[in-house]
Design a protein that fits this description.
The chain contains 14 helices and nine strands. The chain has 437 residues and is α/β, with parallel strands linked by helices. Among the domains are: 20-81, Orthogonal Bundle (Arc Repressor Mutant, subunit A), CATH 1.10.10.1590; 94-184, Glutaredoxin, CATH 3.40.30.10; 362-432, no CATH class. α2 (42-53) packs antiparallel against α3, α3 packs across α4 and α6 packs parallel to α7 (162-173).
């Protein structure tokens, strides 16, 4: 990168000041930054100074540094680093920047540079004799598809030929630069193909209509509030007298409309208890000819609960119960395979006879966890060989008891158990290609 230095003292102005409009703009720009960050406005203020004078002088740098309370060297570093800042005087009517990067160079940028050297000055960053025009070569200006091109201040002029650039320079030198239209200088639409369109040549035939969404459905009406429950009847206004029909001591209804006082009705009830020899205790004596649950036979367990005393079941056609005492028999002890203490307490009854010996780790079967292993042990399943020997009937029984819904076949328990029973974890790895679980 070429070293960038300030212009010679002979061309440096003695002082610099923003005009009124630019001074107000600068104060507003500085106020946009938070307290302690106002120095971030250095680039906008330098650009404004360049727009006003055409280039950045030493006096302009010192003015910006004073406005932002920055060291002079810091502002000088910014001005000399960015090539957008002109450190030498430029033409008062036009400063032409010729793009010299690869696309423009391939399309004739060297011819454009030769035109500038002929019509303005042989060297860049020098003005013509009148001081109205100057030029320089710059890096890419971002219009490669319209190469070659130049920029004059903030406008670009594209698709140039040497002849067209000479016409543009002459117009600016005469003070008629506003008659030149920026952009492409040939019959071309922006950056479209020079020879015209090459695709999408057919006119569209489809008609499109704007989609209008249907209206949203109306919200359903809120359900009616339930009716308030009727108040419970009270006895606040009822008389304490009762009718004859409701008196507990009366044997039969009295005449319609007859009434008895509460005290009289209570006395008649007590009198009825005396006549019936009632003493307030429940009567446990059995009635003669009692049947059903009141009979003595109805109090005796005739089931088959193991270890309980029971009566013999009457022969078919005989009376089911009576006062005669039936002989007592002892129920035969139950088979442990049919009834277990866990089943008697509401647990899981065993379906298989657990083999002798230590239990296998059923959790190595994929799909069996600690809880499920406990349930399988309760069913009498403690060995891999038992699971490996499962038939369809066995699978159906276990599915029904534990509500597996096909898990045994889905997770291939039988296949896993066969591998584990045959050779343990090593055999499992050979068959399934992975460790169990």
């Amino acid at each position: 990168m070429v070293a960038r230095r300030l212009a010679e003292d002979s061309v440096q102005p003695a002082e610099f000041a923003f005009n009124n409009d630019n001074a107000q703009w600068a104060e507003k720009r500085i106020a946009l930054y938070p307290v302690g960050r106002q120095q971030s406005a250095v680039i906008p203020l330098l650009m404004r100074a360049q727009e006003q004078e055409g280039w950045i002088s030493r006096a302009a740098i010192e003015k910006v540094a004073a406005m932002l309370d920055m060291p002079y060297i810091r502002v000088l570093e910014v001005a000399t680093f960015y090539t957008q800042f002109q450190l030498q005087p430029v033409g008062t009517r036009a400063h032409i920047q010729v793009c010299g990067t690869t696309p423009c160079m391939l399309r004739g940028a060297e011819d454009l540079r030769a035109v500038c050297q002929k019509k303005i000055h042989p060297e860049a960053h020098h003005t013509n004799e009148d001081g109205t025009l100057s030029w320089e070569e710059v890096e890419c200006l971002g219009a490669c598809v319209n190469a070659p091109m130049v920029a004059i201040f903030q406008d670009t002029y594209e698709d140039l030929t040497p002849e067209r650039l000479e016409e543009i320079i002459d117009a600016f030198a005469a003070g008629k630069g506003d008659t030149i239209k920026p952009g492409t200088q040939i019959e071309r639409h922006n950056s479209a193909a020079i020879g015209g369109r090459t695709n999408l040549l057919e006119e569209p035939t489809a008609t499109r209509e704007k989609f209008v969404p249907p209206p949203a459905p109306e919200a359903p009406a809120a359900p009616a509030a339930p009716a308030a429950p009727a108040p419970a009847p009270t006895t606040a206004a009822k008389p304490k007298d009762v009718t004859a029909e409701s008196a507990p001591a009366l044997k039969e209804p009295a005449r319609k409309g007859a009434k008895v006082s509460q005290a009289k009705a209570e006395g008649e009830r007590l009198q009825a208890d005396v006549e019936a020899k009632a003493n307030g205790k429940p009567n446990t004596a059995m009635r003669e000819g009692a049947v059903g649950s009141e009979a003595e036979g109805g109090k005796v367990d005739t089931g088959k609960a193991p270890g309980k005393r029971t009566r013999a079941v009457p022969a078919e056609g005989a009376a089911s119960a009576g006062t005669a005492k039936a002989p007592v028999r002892k129920v035969k002890g139950a088979d442990p395979a049919e009834v277990s203490p866990s089943a008697d307490k509401g647990g899981i009854a065993p379906l298989f006879t657990a083999p002798v010996g230590p239990k296998d780790d059923l959790k190595l079967i994929s799909g069996v966890g600690p809880v499920l292993e406990g349930k399988l042990n309760a069913l009498g399943i403690t060995k891999y060989a038992q699971v490996a020997a499962f038939k369809k009937a066995d699978i159906a029984r276990v599915d029904a008891v534990l509500n597996f819904r096909g898990r045994i076949e889905r997770d291939e328990w039988v296949k896993q158990a066969k591998a584990l029973a045959k050779g343990g974890v090593e055999e499992y790895r050979k068959v399934f290609g992975k460790d169990p679980r």
